[in-house]
Amino acid sequence: MEDCLFCKIISGEIPSKKIYEDELTYVFEDIAPTAPIHYLVIPKQHISKLDEITPENSAVIAHIYEVIAKLAKDLDLKDGFRVVSNCGEQAGQSVFHIHFHLLAGRPLAWPAG
């Protein structure tokens, strides 16, 4: 999608601090971190929101969670981590390209909202 911030990051048009990349996903540091580890895990395929997941594109979401598990192991996050995805403006979604925040490195309070 030509005007999507995350699509531009994936293509290299906008710089980012890449953490991980494979054929389906791209992971980079959040520009406004709320935890010592705050990465965004995104599919290279443009999917706007969680409510647009279908049987045709759900495999990429499963793969994202596999990537998150790999990152957690590689980063030795045995004390815990949180994965957050917002769907829609009222939930706090500001970039309409599905993404998952990987947060760790400090105690994370609950409730989150």
Automatic annotation (TrEMBL):
PROSITE patterns: HIT_1, HIT_2. Residues 5-113 form the HIT domain. The active site is at H99. Pfam families: DcpS_C. A motif (Histidine triad motif) lies at residues 97-101. GO terms for molecular function: catalytic activity. InterPro entries: Histidine_triad_CS, Histidine_triad_HIT, HIT-like, HIT-like_sf. SUPFAM superfamilies: HIT-like. This is Histidine triad nucleotide-binding protein. It comes from Hominimerdicola aceti. The lineage of its organism: Bacteria, Bacillati, Bacillota, Clostridia, Eubacteriales.
